[in-house]
């Protein structure tokens, strides 16, 4: 066994062996892709493009708390690229990537403060994701009026973010890793 595969001390920043974290990350990436597919099957009668329940973000929040930022970012990028190639195409990748990058950065920064619960961090991520997508949409169509969708997208980001955060909290307890959280 290589020294990098040995478990780190319990007080270390990342819990579990490198091999264990990599295996969990691979499973989470697969699960995120499955959730992305399931989201394409759920019709939402909202009438505004881009409003989705954000089920795949459940996996990203879990990865952020139970692995670390690098794993969460990698899982998110892999999920977006593969699901974009399979389900939504180039523009879907562009919109999703913009929202995801802004969302993961906001969630990581808020998590680092230690001031917010997992649901609060997830809620901010949901709103940031929608803002990131609106920024790209307004740039692509060269029309700032795209932000007229912002109130509805903020509400959907808040609601889905809170639900995803609560689900991530309970689902994360089943993982073989300890949360990477300041106490």
Keywords:
single chain; 183 residues; mainly alpha; 5 helices; 69% helix; disordered N terminus
What does the main sheet amount to? none
Helix count, DSSP H or I runs of 4 or more residues: 5
Instruction: Work out the helicity level.
Output: 55-70%
What is the 3D form? globular
Q: What is the CATH class designation? A: Mainly Alpha
Order of helices and strands: HHHHH
CATH topology grouping: Arp2/3 complex 21 kDa subunit ARPC3
- CATH architecture level-2 label: Orthogonal Bundle
How far apart the termini lie comes to 32 Å
How many DSSP E strands? Answer: 0
Radius of gyration: 17 Å
On the 0 to 100 scale, the average pLDDT is 83
Structural class: mainly alpha
Q: Report the sheet-strand fraction.
A: under 5%
* Count of separate structural domains: 1
List low-pLDDT spans. Answer: 1-14
Description:
- With 183 residues, the protein is mostly helical.
- It has a single domain, classed as Orthogonal Bundle (Arp2/3 complex 21 kDa subunit ARPC3).
- It is 69% helix and 0% strand.
- It has 5 helices and no strands.
- The protein has helices spanning 18-41, 56-66, 69-113, 118-140, 150-172.
- Helix 1 crosses helix 3 (69-113), helix 3 crosses helix 4 (118-140) and helix 4 (118-140) packs antiparallel against helix 5.
- The two termini are 32 Å apart.
- Residues 1-14 have low confidence and may be disordered.
């Amino acid at each position: 066994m290589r020294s990098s595969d040995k478990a780190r001390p319990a007080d270390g920043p990342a819990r579990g062996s490198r091999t264990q974290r990599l295996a969990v990350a691979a499973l989470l990436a697969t699960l995120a892709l499955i959730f992305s597919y399931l989201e394409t099957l759920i019709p939402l009668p909202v009438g505004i493009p881009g409003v989705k329940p954000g089920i795949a973000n459940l996996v990203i929040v879990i990865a952020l708390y139970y692995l670390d930022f690098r794993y969460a970012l990698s899982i998110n990028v892999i999920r977006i690229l593969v699901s974009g190639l399979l389900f939504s195409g180039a523009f879907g990748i562009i919109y999703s990537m913009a929202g995801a990058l802004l969302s993961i950065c906001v969630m990581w920064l808020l998590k680092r403060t230690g001031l917010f619960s997992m649901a609060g961090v997830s809620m901010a991520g949901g709103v940031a994701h929608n803002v990131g997508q609106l920024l790209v949409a307004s740039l692509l169509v060269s029309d700032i009026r795209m932000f007229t969708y912002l109130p509805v997208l903020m509400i959907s980001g808040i609601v889905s973010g809170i639900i995803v955060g609560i689900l991530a909290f309970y689902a994360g307890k089943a993982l073989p890793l300890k949360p990477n959280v300041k106490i």
